[in-house]
Design a protein that fits this description.
This protein is an alpha/beta fold. It is built from four helices and five strands, in the order E-H-E-H-E-H-E-H-E. It has a single domain, classed as Rossmann fold. The longest helix is centred in the middle third of the chain and has 19 residues.
Length: 123
């Protein structure tokens, strides 16, 4: 059976926390069915706002880090769009998993529609 590949996109601390439950479930109960690819936009990039949560919540580090950093909304959105498109084209996922709260989500939803991917969003 072919595994369903999804991109789990995070960019800020609240998204990492929310994504952790999904990541743990996929790694455990659904490991044979779902191939999760974690993409970090890099909006929260220092250890205290990012990596510490991956460590403490016991989820694996991202497969891709877009290294967007901080900046104005338009700059961040543009960089995320450019970089996430490359990830989507290379990974060829069936869908995206995003949490609707910031710039990383605005661009992720755009590509969900553009590439007709399955949307697994949550608030």
């Amino acid at each position: 059976m072919k595994k369903l590949k999804i991109l789990n996109i995070v960019g800020a601390r609240p998204q990492i926390i929310k994504a952790s439950a999904i990541s743990r479930a996929i790694a455990g109960e659904f490991a044979g069915e779902i191939d999760e690819v974690v993409v970090h936009t890099g909006q929260h990039y220092d250890r205290e706002l990012s990596a510490v949560f991956f460590d403490e919540l016991e989820i694996r580090m991202p497969d891709h880090n877009l290294q967007v950093g901080s900046g104005r909304h338009g700059r961040q959105t543009g960089m995320i769009m450019e970089r996430i498109e490359d990830v989507i084209m290379n990974e060829k996922p069936a869908g995206l998993r995003v949490r609707l709260s910031n710039s990383s989500n605005v661009t992720s939803v755009e590509f969900t529609f553009r590439y007709k991917l399955s949307d697994h969003s949550s608030a």
